[in-house]
Amino acid sequence: MARKILFAGTPAIAVPSLQALAAIADIEILGVMCPPDKKVGRKQTLTPCAVKREAVKQNLKIFEVQKKNDVLSVYQKIKPDLVVVIALGVIFPKEALDIAPTVNIHFSLLPQWRGASPVQSAILNGDLVSGITLQKMVPQLDAGDILWQHKEKIGKRGTQELWKKWAETSASAISELVLNFETLTPFPQDESLATHCGKFEKADGEVFPAQETAEEIMRKFRAFDVWPGIFITTKDGSVKILECSLAPKENSLELPCKKDSLWLQIIQVAGKSPTSAVDVVRGRPTLFR
Question: pLDDT digits over 33-48, tens only?
C-alpha cells in the first residue's frame, strides 16, 4: 500500500522536496499544508506562496493553516502515515505530533542554529561548515532526534546560492528517508552544543564601516543577499550596496572600514537607479565622508 504523506511548507526551497515526493509511485500525497495567500507589492495583490503554487500544479489537496489548531485539525482529518515539513512557519502542537511521525528539513547542522534563519546566521557567524538536518519534530523548536545530516563547506557562498543547492540536496534525501523510514535509527541532539537564531529585520542590513571590518560587512552582504540586502546611512539618505568585494576590481570604489577596505562596484542612492559606485561618488564626492 502506498505510504500516505502530508506535506507542509511555504517558500521556494520547499518546492523541490514536494516535487520529488510527488514523483514517487509508492507515495500518495494526501495534501499540502501552507499559509493563506498574502498581500504583496504596492497594489497589495493576494499572492500564493511557492508551495501552494506547486501544489496546484500537482493537483494536490491544499490545507491553509495559520495557527497550531489549524495544523492539529488537518492531522486529525486525514491521519497521514508520515508528515514532511520544510519552513512552514507555524507551530506544530504535541497533539498533532502524537498522531503521525513528522520529519522536519532544517538547513543547519543541528543542534547548531535552531530557529528561523540558520543559513544567514551561519554566514554571519563566519562558520566554515554547515549543512542540512532531517529530524523528527518535537514540540521544542528544532530539538528532535536526528535522522540524517549532510555537511559541506560554506566557502564564499551567500544565502541564495546555499538555499538553491540545499533545496535540491534535501529533495533527494527526503525521498530516500520516506521510502526507508522504518529502518532508520535516530540519535539525540547534544543540548550542550545548541545555538539559536531568530528572524531578521530590514534594519539588520545596515552596515557601519567605522565600527565593522570589511570581512564582517562582506558576511552581511552574503547573508542578506536574498533579503534585506545591505545599506549605509549617509547624509544623502540610505545607500544600498548591490555589488562589492574584498579586493579591488576594475572601476571599483574603496570604502575604508574598521579593518581593511570594502570595494564597491554597484550602489543605489535612495530614489535613484543602481549605478557604478565610482560614477556616483564622482558627482557626490562627500557621499561617504
Answer: 999 999 888 888 999 9
Q: Map grid coordinates 543547519 to a residue.
A: 108
List, for residues 223-276, the tens digit of each pLDDT value: 999 999 999 999 889 999 999 999 999 999 999 999 999 999 999 999 999 999
The CA distance from 137 to 177, in Å, is 14
Give dist(CA 227, CA 159) in Å, integer.
Answer: 9
Closest CA to 83 of 39, 16, 134: 134
Domains of the chain listed by start with CATH number: 3-197 (3.40.50.170), 202-283 (3.10.25.10)
Cell 543602481 identifies what position?
274
Q: Model pTM?
A: 0.96
C-alpha distance from residue 82 to each of 79, 218, 243, 255 (Å)? 9, 41, 44, 52
